[in-house]
Fold:
Amino acid sequence: MPTVRINDTETMLPEGARVLEAVAHTTGRELTDTGAPADGGRLGVAVALAGEVVPRSRWSATELSDGDALEIVTAVQGG
Amino acid sequence: MTPEPTTPQHSRAVPSLQVGDYILESRLIMGTGGITDLAALEKALRTSGTTLTTVAMRRYSPETKTSVFAMLERLGIDVLPNTAGCYTVKDTVLTAELAREALETNLIKVEVIADEQTLLPDVVETLEATEQLAERGFIPMVYTSDDPAAALRLEQAGAAAVMPLGAPIGTGLGILNPHNIELICSRASVPVVLDAGIGAASEAAQAMELGCEAVLVASAVTRAQDPEAMAAAVRLAVEAGWHSRRAGRIPQRRHAVASSPMEGIINPVEDLT
Structure:
């Protein structure tokens, strides 16, 4: 079971977990393989792995390993 | 006999503005920070008539579920993500890439600050970030100082809009150097948007009169005692300022010029001069 840092918090994910599962875990939303919410609408979330953006189209193809650091961000009030 | 209905000589409608390949329908860009009451924010945004509104990018947390993004989507308002909180080119570019991925827009408000105390833009980092973002296909709308030389450099670096401050963020001090803002506007070949410093509606009108093509307002509305009422006032002010600019103001003079005829005055006094 890989332990990855998601937004600076150690998180245990199931074996073989991909970015897709990490996003689903963090947002509490069920996602299709394309990264879209299963219940429709837009997720409004982006992911960086080791300082590089992982496009949504790559979420289901990007497997996570122990010690990976993920940033999962969204829009908040500001400006 | 009833008089013929007259056709208005000019329309009150302010035309849309092109920023890069984006069409900005309303010339009042709003911010969403500085207010905790989301229902009050929604009212203010609706009343402002804005079609483009800023958001910041931050780590996802469970509380963000009822997000401002969902609200803007529901209101049909486009999002303008900013890079607030970034101090370096690297962070700015990563934040912009994340924003594009999350929000599916090429628009980015480039905001690279020098320090927390003044929140003044770091123009050196801003210039480099603007160049990189333009190369990556973004539409950079660039927050900068009121320095006319810097504004030109940003334009050359690929800024789709130059957004000088009137005064530091959140101060409500208005336009501290109107001469510089006017100079920036007069030389720019991309739209100039006044960003930051506005405290009341009159200053939004002044920005438009100086030649700005649009105005970005956050705190002046969101921290006003009645945000919705201030949103209405600023909306009208932007419109009024746009018309005033095109109407062509009279030159400023040191001495009075009479507007009533001097001839035919009864018992004219002797010329005392």
User: Anything to note?
Assistant: Chain A has one domain: 3-74. The mean pLDDT of chain A is 90. The longest helix of chain A spans residues 19-27. Residues 3-74 of chain A form a domain with the Ubiquitin-like (UB roll) fold (CATH 3.10.20.30).
